[in-house]
Amino acid sequence: MHLTPQHILLAGATGLTGEHLLDRLLSEPTVVRVVAPTRRPLAEHPHLTNPVGPIPELLTQLHGPLDTAFCCLGSTIRQAGSQEAFRAVDHDLVLAVAQRARELGARHFIVVSALGANPKSQVFYNRVKGEMEEGLKAQDWPQLTIARPSLLLGPRSDFRVSERLAAPLMRWVPGKYRGIYACTLARALWRLALEEDSGVRIVESDDLRRLGR
């Protein structure tokens, strides 16, 4: 378990999970610096470095050292506007963030993927998530943690019709398919960051709920 000061990169700090995770990180006494590149400014904090602009353009401006990197980036095809635009965020940008974090010294990368991620899936969304996971594995991280949550529950700034309709049902679905609250996922991600291990670990949604209690 990490007890030494932590320098952390958080990509996706303005998203549903990222907002909760950022609050958590900034309240942790062992976290001395959080680097969170965003498109819109975040509230100032003495331990927060917040470059503002398009994230792909900000990556080369980031500076280390880093210990751990979190990636909570994610969109939908409807939100992105096309399959190509969706892939540019949920695959290409995730891999670019990871590569830059590795260059800055991070040894542990923690990414929010999705339940059902599979590079051979017939479902485009799940296939892109699976290809993203395979791309991260190919980067040969000392420690790579892949979180696969089910439907994320909680208030969003953007309206998503399908998620709004499915959310009441997903609270009662058994096992790993049950929806998970973003605040629970954020707590689980931080607990996973504290675990010192090596290699790749995939954590399904039911285990994420347990870790985030």
From TrEMBL:
Residue span, NAD(P)-binding domain: 12-139
InterPro entries: NAD(P)-bd_dom, NAD(P)-bd_dom_sf
Gene3D superfamilies named in the record: NAD(P)-binding Rossmann-like Domain
Domain of life: Bacteria
Pfam families linked to this entry: NAD_binding_10 (PF13460)
Name the UniProt record assigns to this protein: Oxidoreductase
